[in-house]
Known about the structure:
The structure holds two protein chains of two kinds. By secondary structure, chain A is an alpha/beta fold. Chain A has helices spanning 21-32, 46-56, 70-84, 102-108, 120-130, and strands at residues 8-12, 36-39, 60-65, 90-95, 112-114.
Amino acid sequence: MEQDRNIRVLMAKPGLDGHERGARVLAYGLRDEGFEVIYTGLRQTPDQIAAAVIQEDVDVVGLSILSGAHLAMAGKVIEKLKGQRVKDVLVLVGGVIPEEDIPKLKEMGVAGVFTSGASIKEIAEFIRSHVS
Amino acid sequence: MNEDIKKIAQATNEWKDKVVKPKLKKYKLEESPTRFYTPEDIEEFDFLEKVGYPGQYPFTAGNDPAPRWQVFAAAEAKESTRFEWGAATSSGAGKYAGFGTPEDFRDYLVRMHEMGRNAGPNFAFDLPTQCGYDSDDPRSEGEVGRVGVAVDSLRDFEIVYEAYTGDLDIDKVSSNFTANAQAIVIIALYAALAEKRGIPLEKLRGTPQNDILKEYVARGTYIYPPGPALRLFRDTLVFCTEHMPNFNITSIGGYHMREAGATREQDLAYSMAIGATYLQTGIDAGVDIDSYAPHFTVNAFGGSMEFYKEIAFQRAARRMWATMLKERFGAKNPRSMMLRQMGGAHMGYINATLQRPLNNLTRAVIGGMADGMSGGIPFGAMPPWDEPLGLGHSLEAQQLGHDATRIMIYEAKLGEVLDPWAGSYFMESLTNEIENAAKEEFDRIEEMGGFVAAIENGYVRQAIARSAYERQKRIENLEEFIVGVNCFAGPHELNVMTERSVDDVYSAELLATAGQRKCESLALLKKERNDKDVARTLKDLKSAAGNEEENLMPYIIECVKVYATLQEICDVMRDVFGEYKTGNI
Lengths: 132, 585
């Protein structure tokens, strides 16, 4: 029944970071790749993001963080999602993420981390291969 | 068409036919991949009208016939004094920096001064401070002291400025503040600090960014809707013009919009439109344009790797600003017409790559060369090559950047000729082209009712995002190439790295505990201060905020003097003005 449903992606900007070039470019790009994309806008709290995940019934949530607060922010969002007992949601992180933090994010439950130079196509492929 | 041009046009056609065509045929090309310019391209060119002389209207050839950095270049070299590049103009503050608690930042500044820093603080504030939240607000969790120093109250300014006393007191050094939505509070903090130190306000030198309009379309640290935000801008303009005549009013930042994705022409058009909106607030308040326009500065315009176009862009920007000030705003003082930039042409920080990052030094040198040839000042080889690796440049990367700039000045002698492209068929034609394209977009904004209207209807935000997406598509479709990213990235390429032994300019340990330490000191402050005074001054601010005619600067100074916090002040204005929210993609 759900076969024809497009993969739904929530692009989110947690925290106070106002750099949204990456988030918006990716939102446009994933849309053109055939996904349904919802963008939260700036300054979302982890609670707001978790609520949007449920309300929008998304398969993927992309957190865009360039402020250095990625460990704290990703951790909080994942914690809230777990607390909500929602279906499995693929959590991705993008932005300025120092290499040494990538394993830490993955340990928290982040499925993929995409930094500067990543292409829309490679992110789209990643999503397709991880959401069935 | 005059006779000479006719002859040249004929010769050009012959050249195309006899020389170019066979070549194109050989390579099976429809169009030539190169261009060659002739006098035909600037047929109507009037040198005096379009270029003029350095230091004279319309300033196409630059603002200064004898730039300070060139005048003192030899002396600086003989003394081997460390020169803070970029400090030579608008503000005179040193390298942009900030992290942790005020104590952490103060200690950093003391350490940098011991290592040769010779100019005032150039504040990077953390995001809570930029967005008008205190360190103890739940929204600040995880962000305190992260992208800059955390400032909640006058106590914090007092602590940072412990690094600036005696020969470095604030009547002698200049400060820079990257503050926008809450710039009025930051200026009030500085004024209150001066008052406490017994320094008259007219001695204060510095530059607040105070460029709120671009925040709605690029950088994102807005608080109030654009209308009230513009009123706060007006209040700073009027107050500073009257009481702080050596303090700049704003540092407009076209570069932020370019970083967010704007094209060259959009960047130029929107920057001019924003500048015009700010200038108009002074006119509307009945202030003489020549009393405040000289205190308008520009953070940096532009930024890209397209060498020729960035040079033309700088020339076009200076001419557009000068023309607008003279013709539209009726300025008479030539200083009012000068586009005073802290930086100049540069590579564009967004173009620094994470892949094979040492290549960013090469890119920065190319940007610095463009700067040196664009009639500007030597902003130099910026940013340091490790820009995309995370926050805080290593000292080694800074050293390489400084040295590259020195080599451009001392060995390549880039500064010997002012606006070296003046009169070039090619450069004059390209300058006109960029100016005309920007004017067209500028007029579109005017027709919408100005920049505030173009924020409110979502046009600019959308236009910038579309441009960013178009560029990304070109990169992914291999229509645009980035070395080491989408080409020449095979397994046989070497990832050359250099040592970054001094990469802990911002201590990770201090950063880890900054939030907690800052909340503790804020709790202590709230216990020690006189709450009645705080409540009284905030109440006065609230009633003044409700009256559009009132200037809020004096009220906010009263608030900060009794240690009301940044958020308490911003919350009062949130109550009166409301908060701004951006739309969807």
